[in-house]
């Protein structure tokens, strides 16, 4: 249906009551529902009505001082996924969890459990937790170094995938008459004894429907790209410019090939905040309405965290000083800072202009327009190889996502770009990813599996 | 409704397809559903139909070699609770989680999240994880010492309850027009800096409906009792004998009073496996039917783990040798071993007899009889002060629980012993426990709360 047989993928990034930082002040949102699980179930069902591949929750392991200006995060994402799983049928469910501040046995088990609970729809967005404020909640006096976090993440992924593989697919026999529940020869200790982690296994949950939940990654630093190239099956990324996005996709696929992977199995989804209106003017007015609700003090707080320097001398209507983002920041990711530095280099905004620029989607691309114009952008990037799909960041929720589902998705479908029905039932099937075999699968098991009708 | 105004409490302990070790071989169970979340939702709804206070999942952080003989554990309990929460309305939801092998920030957040997701029905069964096999999954070469685990558990509880308190109840202002979401003065860093844990806080989830999820505990060692006396609001315990149960309850309440707590706020629930039949003979026949499905090799495996010694010289029809449980065991809890040693001392069974004795409910009390006879036992223990209620362990599920709900619960109600409707909507309300105030509540907040209509 899509050009060259490629399929377009859509993920709904669910963030609070919307990605615009002032969404909670918008009359169409209800921030009082942010601890009400039914709100999240409803948003997920909107995305499922649109036949999205997945919904996704970002995460951070600390509370920053934003609480005055911004609704606090919702329930913890893994528990939230479990609650959404049983209120949806087909849509994939991706949650963020940290390799730095969790134990691999617990994490492997919880994601395998969500995969069971959802019938094969779980995905794990792997993060290494860049914020120092998170380190303070886990016994540390400072943030572990960027490189050290990625070293642990590599070994962590190895342990988690071993645990997911520790039960072969046909380990359960279930012979009630003979009194044999499972074949112990097909349930494997992993005996991992590495530089940082020692885990014996096996996991205490049988292999999950997808074999392994889908691995997702969003880091764009050099090390983040290499890590994604080695492990990620879907990649979320912030890209402002078509050329940069093509270069990013080309680079990551090249790195994947260098790691011995088939680069065609990576799904790259840049973020896209779509502000939708019946006319371009109406869309832009909606965007302005949100921008005007943004609180400058909040924007400056965010900017200070991004720059890692004192901003008290800054005037809102003066240009952003060059070199503002050259400092040694501790509270945001390198790649995030590089993205904003690039916006400043390219557009030379005033401080107020930059705050407005970031208010829409924290540095992700914002497009305001008619459903046809949004679809044009999606089509252009997709056909140019800049994207396998998009991480849709509705400026306000659920209304902004409803507009996308009811107006942009049908337009994409009219152009033959997007599915008209779910063809599979697992997240792997939606993304067109293979189901991995267990690394412990015995030749016998393979023969038995092949011999099955 | 109950004698002296006391209320009887019932918890449904959900274990696999039943507590009898052969339940999975029984024709009325379906072990194939143990990874199907709908099975657990259905069992929870049966308990809710019976107006039980709560359902409960035990847990262990390893897989033992039992896999040949026993269905593996279900999805991880916290994710499972979230999925059950949204399929039930009123029943409390208790999951086990370890203070030894989790991070307090993650645990506090997940239980607060389940409390939000369920509208105030979460409880945490605190364990310190006694199995060496669990230690092997978390980087250790041996199990941490019993005392050291409890020292960590004490500090862990302190941190978790501080995190649950870190948002005052009225911290969220939600002033959209004024642009003030929350009052930062009512969201507190906890700045915990203890011997073992350092956690800054605050939690990144607002205070949950119960303030704090209910704290449950089941350890019966000396240290376990002291720990329960200091922290637990509900206590699950294995008691075979009325006199011992009264002594246990008296002892724990005395310790609670010594810790400065009101001993009347502890809810003590001994385990009870009820094998129910229309006649006593029918109930006993049902029990025998299950016992005959038990696999002696599995029983011996369990016994070996409990005794911590080689059993190869043991003959099934010889008496259990005295001193079998004097060894230095590493794979089961001290109190569990003491319980079984006491059964041996009292009943002097053969090895086969002991295996049968343990097959029903792993050392918990098994009563076979008519609904009236089961109700008699419950009434006797309740009125004697041996129990505030019972941890009902159906020998097979969901059938065994359905019999209890449909026949024993109505009999308890006829006797005026059990509720005829849920009076509250939170687990705390079901158990008659107070809702704790935040330790950080400011005098102003208290005044404001008092001044509310």
From TrEMBL, chains A, B:
Keywords: Flavoprotein, FMN, Monooxygenase, Oxidoreductase
Keyword set includes Oxidoreductase: yes
Residue ranges constituting the Luciferase-like domain according to the UniProt record: 27-386
Alphabetized Pfam families for the sequence: Bac_luciferase
Matches recorded under InterPro entries: Diverse_substr_monoxygenases (IPR051260), Luciferase-like_dom (IPR011251), Luciferase-like_sf (IPR036661), NTA_MOA (IPR016215)
Keyword Chaperone: no
Region of interest (Disordered), residue spans: 434-453
Membrane-spanning ranges: none
Protein family per UniProt: Belongs to the NtaA/SnaA/DszA monooxygenase family.
Protein's recorded name: LLM class flavin-dependent oxidoreductase
Species for this entry: Actinomadura vinacea
Taxonomic lineage of the native organism: Bacteria, Bacillati, Actinomycetota, Actinomycetes, Streptosporangiales
């Amino acid at each position: 249906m899509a050009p060259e047989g490629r399929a377009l993928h859509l993920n709904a990034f669910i963030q609070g009551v919307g990605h615009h930082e002032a969404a909670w002040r918008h009359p169409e949102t209800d921030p009082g529902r942010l601890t009400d699980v039914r709100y999240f179930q409803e948003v997920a069902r909107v995305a499922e009505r649109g036949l999205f591949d997945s919904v996704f929750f970002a995460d951070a392991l600390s509370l920053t001082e934003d609480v005055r200006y911004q609704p606090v995060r919702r329930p913890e994402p893994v528990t939230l996924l479990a609650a959404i799983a049983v209120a949806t049928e087909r849509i994939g469910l991706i949650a963020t969890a940290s390799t730095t501040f969790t134990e691999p046995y617990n994490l492997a088990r919880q994601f395998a459990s969500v995969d069971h609970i959802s019938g094969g729809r779980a995905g794990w967005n792997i993060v290494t937790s860049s914020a120092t404020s998170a380190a303070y909640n886990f016994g540390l006096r400072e943030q572990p170094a960027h490189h050290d976090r990625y070293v642990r993440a590599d070994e962590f992924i190895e342990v988690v995938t071993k645990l997911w593989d520790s039960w072969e697919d046909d380990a359960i026999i279930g012979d009630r008459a003979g009194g044999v529940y499972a074949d112990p020869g097909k349930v494997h200790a992993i005996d991992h004894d590495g530089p940082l982690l020692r885990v014996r296994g096996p996991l205490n949950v049988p292999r999950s429907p997808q074999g392994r939940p889908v691995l997702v990654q969003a880091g764009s630093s050099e090390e983040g790209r290499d890590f994604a190239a080695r492990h990620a099956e879907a990649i979320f990324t912030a890209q402002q410019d078509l050329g940069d996005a093509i270069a990013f996709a080309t680079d990551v696929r090249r790195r994947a090939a260098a790691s011995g992977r088939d680069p065609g199995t990576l799904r790259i989804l840049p973020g896209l905040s779509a502000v939708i209106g019946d006319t371009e003017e109406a869309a832009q007015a909606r965007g302005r309405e949100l921008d005007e609700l943004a609180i400058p003090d909040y924007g400056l707080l965010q900017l200070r965290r991004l720059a890692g320097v004192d901003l008290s001398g800054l005037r809102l209507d003066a240009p952003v000083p060059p070199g503002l983002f050259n400092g040694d920041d501790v509270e945001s990711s390198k790649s995030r800072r590089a993205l904003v530095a690039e916006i400043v280099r390219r557009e030379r905004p005033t401080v107020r202009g930059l705050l407005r620029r970031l208010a829409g989607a924290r540095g992700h691309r914002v497009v305001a327009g008619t459903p046809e114009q949004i679809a044009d952008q999606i089509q252009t990037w997709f056909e140019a190889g800049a994207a396998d799909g998009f991480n849709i960041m509705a400026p306000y929720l659920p209304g902004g996502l409803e507009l996308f589902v009811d107006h942009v998705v049908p337009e994409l479908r009219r152009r033959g770009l997007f599915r008209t029905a779910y063809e599979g039932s697992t997240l792997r099937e939606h993304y067109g990813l293979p189901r991995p075999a267990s690394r412990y699968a015995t030749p016998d098991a393979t023969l038995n599996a092949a011999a099955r009708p």
